[in-house]
Design goal:
The protein has 404 residues and is α+β, with helices and mostly antiparallel strands. Helix content is 36%, strand content 25%. The strands form 4 sheets. The chain has a 5-stranded antiparallel sheet with strand order 5-6-4-9-10, with helices on one face. A 5-stranded mixed β-barrel has the order 11-12-13-15-14. It has a 3-stranded antiparallel sheet with strand order 1-2-3. Strand 14 and strand 15 form a beta hairpin. Helix 5 (116-138) crosses helix 7 and helix 5 packs antiparallel against helix 9 (240-250). The radius of gyration is 27 Å and the shape is globular. 33% of the residues are buried.
């Protein structure tokens, strides 16, 4: 037996006018009351013929307004049918959960289940899709790698995962529409910049945009055999990472659907609710996405290097996150400064290097993200006594920000 919701919580997210409209749309009828004080409602005659109803307060200045509204919600729930209950449940969740995104995967297993590997792919595809939606807000690129990762990670940290549904297997994500995400870290107490900031609603809409670009680029390839569309659609957000996300969604399945609903509390009480936006991809799209991915990956500018540098700044690891160090590069790359994320034991080695005037030699994948060079997937890390080395390469000093 399902547990009733918290009626007081629902009342916190409703006005009496909204509840009255919900009752009216659910077939209830008004049968009396006093204007500006209260109205009385009961289920329509077609429902049960019952005369019992509820009292809906209208005077928000009254001390017992919220108590009476909570009682009205409880009565509507107990006397109403599935239509009114659905509205009341969603009214409580929309303010706290936000815009809803659903990633469906059709499989031939028992309803409400999915094979483990297909489920992992579904979650991975949903995760990558939302990362792409955030990254494309800052810039458009055929291949992102770790670019724009701060914006994407801070966005994902605010997304909630909802319950699955019976039927095709579903991953549900909820995005806070009004929350603002910045492209760079904003220090505590600092003013949020006017540019380089994006709301959750804007990123969610961006997901729809990039999925539409993917759908159209794949359709163009399948109709013409030309790969030119894959590059042309980069300006609309199509990228290597999106091809990987979509391949994960449709791998080992009969198809996948990405569905987005932009929710607000008022949407529940509109006569015509806003349409859900959905896009479908099937197993037949897999080879086209693979072709697109290979083409777009060729544009990646990552370079594997072994860097020797002195540790100049350190950011201590936080629980569950790596530490960050900045190196003044002595040799191994044209970059003058390099940032590296290090796990705890390697971070401790960097601290020793800083204290004892030693250098670090690290191998990894060098990428330019904005104005900063990063070394990803660091592998060979050792302490080295400082020996003057000079790089024969040069780099424009304006290409890197002097700040950490």
């Amino acid at each position: 037996m399902n547990t009733p919701p918290d009626f007081q919580e629902i009342a916190e997210h409703l006005t009496d006018a909204q509840l009255a409209l919900a009752l009216q749309q659910s077939g209830w009828e008004k049968f009396g009351g006093r204007d500006s004080l209260y109205s009385r409602w009961r289920p329509g005659a077609s429902e049960s013929g019952a005369t019992r109803g509820l009292l809906l307060p209208q005077d928000r200045s009254a001390e017992d307004y919220f108590e009476l509204l909570s009682q009205a919600v409880a009565s509507a729930w107990n006397l109403g049918d599935l239509r009114i209950r659905s509205i009341l449940e969603r009214a409580a969740s929309l303010h706290s959960l936000g815009d809803e995104m659903k990633f469906h995967k059709e499989t031939r297993t028992r309803k409400g289940t999915i094979s483990w590997t297909a489920g992992v792919d579904l979650h991975s595809g949903a995760h990558k899709s939302m990362m792409v939606a955030a990254k494309t807000r800052k810039s458009r690129s055929a291949y992102y790698g770790n670019s724009n990762s701060y914006l994407a990670k801070s966005f994902l940290d605010s997304v909630l995962m909802g319950q699955t549904e019976v039927g095709s297997y579903v991953v549900t994500a909820y995005v806070p529409p009004a929350e603002v995400f910045t492209e760079r870290k904003v220090n505590e107490g600092a003013t949020i910049p006017l540019v380089g900031r994006h709301s959750g609603r804007e990123i969610t809409k961006g997901l729809v945009d990039v999925m539409e670009a993917a759908r159209e680029s794949v359709d163009h390839f399948q109709a013409s055999g030309s790969t030119s569309g894959f590059i042309d659609y980069v300006s609309r957000g199509f990228c290597y990472e999106l091809t990987q996300a979509l391949r994960s969604l449709i791998r080992d399945s009969d198809g996948a659907e990405i569905e987005v609903e932009f929710n607000s509390s008022d949407d529940l009480f509109e006569t015509s609710p806003p349409p859900r936006q959905s896009l479908e991809f099937t197993a037949s799209d897999y080879s086209a996405l693979e072709t697109a991915g290979n083409l777009l990956a060729a544009t990646a500018q990552a370079e594997f290097v072994t860097v020797l540098g002195t540790v100049t700044l350190l950011e201590r690891p936080k629980p569950g996150n790596p530490g960050i160090v900045r190196l003044d590069v002595v040799g191994g790359t044209a970059a003058r400064k390099m940032r590296v994320r290090l796990k705890v034991e390697d971070y401790d080695m960097a601290v020793d290097a800083h204290r004892n005037n030693l250098a670090l030699r690290i191998s990894g994948r060098q990428e330019l993200e904005g104005h900063f060079y990063w070394l990803y997937d660091p592998e060979i890390i050792e302490l080295v006594r400082i020996v003057p080395e000079e790089s024969t390469d040069s780099i424009d000093s304006s290409a890197q920000d002097p700040l950490f």
